[in-house]
Amino acid sequence: MLLVLDIKQIRETPDFVRQRLATRGAGDEALVDQILEMDERRRRLLTEVERLKAERNRASKEIGRMLAEGKTAEAEVRKQETRVLGDRIAELDRQVMEVDQQRDALMLRIPNLPHETVPLGRSAEENQVVRVHGEPPRFEFPPRAHLELCERLGLVDFARAAKVAGSGFALYMGRGARLERALIRFMLDLHTRDHGYTEVWPPLMVGPACLEGVGQFPKFRDQYYGVAEGDDPLQLGRLYLIPTAETVVANLHREEILRESELPIRYCAYTPCFRGEAGAAGVGTRGLIRMHQFDKVELIQITRPEEGYAAHEAMVQHAERVLQMLGLHYRVVLLCSGDLGFASAKTYDLEVWAPGQGSYLEVSSVSNCEEFQARRMRLRFKDAHGLNRHPHILNGSGTALARLYVALVETYQQADGSVLIPPALRPYYGEERILP
RNA sequence: GGAGAGGUGGCUGAGUGGUUGAAAGCGCACGCCUGGAGAGCGUGAGUACCCCAAAAGGGUAUCGGGGGUUCGAAUCCCCCCCUCUCCGCCA
Q1: What are the pLDDT digits (tens) for A146-203?
Q2: Which residue in A3, A209, A9 sits closest to A103, CA to CA?
Q3: Going by CATH, does the domain composed of A7-108 fall within 1.10.10.10?
Q4: Is the CB of A41 under 7 A from strand B?
Q5: What is the ipTM of this complex?
Q6: How far is the CA of A232 from the C1' of B79 (A)?
Q7: CB of residue A331 closer than 7 A to nucleic acid strand B?
Q8: Can you give the pLDDT at residue A4?
Q9: What would be the CATH architecture of the domain defined by A124-434?
């Protein structure tokens, strides 16, 4: 009953589905045959059990009629006969449920099909840079890394963050905290005022159904923080800390049937994001680049399928606008099939230049998940013909904070050790520079 | 956390074991009426799945979720979830 890719699509065009899945290079296409087999078994069982149920329903009505007419003896006989049907039905029902579960479990493991405009490739190396904005800034001195800048200016206290929460957390202090807040407000204002998004301030914990809905479950179960209430171990896993606002906000309309006139829906949310990042320790773990908790302003759109890709392009530009207004050098990267996220059909990453790192940092990922998530969360809209269809769901960071912070202080650092605040941010930060 | 009440179709709301997928009202769609609108009248309309080449048609499931009793469950029993009211606690 839970359709991930449309089971009909798999049934009708298995070769196409297999071929598209194969471009991801993860071997998921092997699931297709298993699913088809399950599906066939399921339908055979269903046809049989439904026939029996129809028969039983008829018999029951007949018994009702007999009793009403006072033919108790006859009714008793009929009851006896019908009881046997019940046993057979129960047995078949059990089998149907079993096959259902197996099929659904397989379906949940199938990632989205890459869009036809996605370049083929195996890994991040084959991603395509589609445009570059600006130039890397020049320095008359060796630019410092953000870690040093932040510590010297007292913006972030990593030691105390580690003391209270362990490694992988940041403690923004004083002007550092104010800068974080300024960035959040700047982005929220930009997207709500200029780009037509409605601001949302959502819960930071969600049930597992939401994680499943956006495609983070079942595949990446171990990367999320589950919370427990008190010491009750039974409570563990009933709620999870959100790894991104997408997890909550994309699910806001789950199991609804929207009116077409309500589309497109555009939401913008600031939230902290919590990630276990299992197995990622060791690489770039110092500083603000990879953390268990970071801030992010997220964009979500729910659109008619016809408009999904136009909205996708627009959304990339909404995220780019942040970087442009902050005067940062960045590039837009189109992910290749092998680097695509589980739920996404097409993704652009925004990578901002961090002079102190001497590298680009991913600060935004803008994806069109097409109908994939809508199907998993049973979100539909009624079109002009009264037909229920799945909308496209898009998400994009607009943008992630911590890495943006890195790029910002590294880009705007001065020879005297101060950090200039770019003009667009000054109304929010309140001053023109952060002095040593 | 304690006590109570309740979850039925887009909404309100009837229904306590048998042609009830579910009265009635509102809302909605279409048609008639109208110069046009309204009122009025009529018709239609949930969702998912299965059978059928398709359409037509037929069937199954669905009254918060799951399990049970029964020939038969919206109706009876058990467990869970959620909402509301009162009390307690708390930012």
Answers
A1: 999 999 999 999 999 989 888 889 999 999 999 999 999 999 999 999 999 999 999 8
A2: A3
A3: no
A4: no
A5: 0.87
A6: 19
A7: no
A8: 47
A9: 2-Layer Sandwich (3.30)
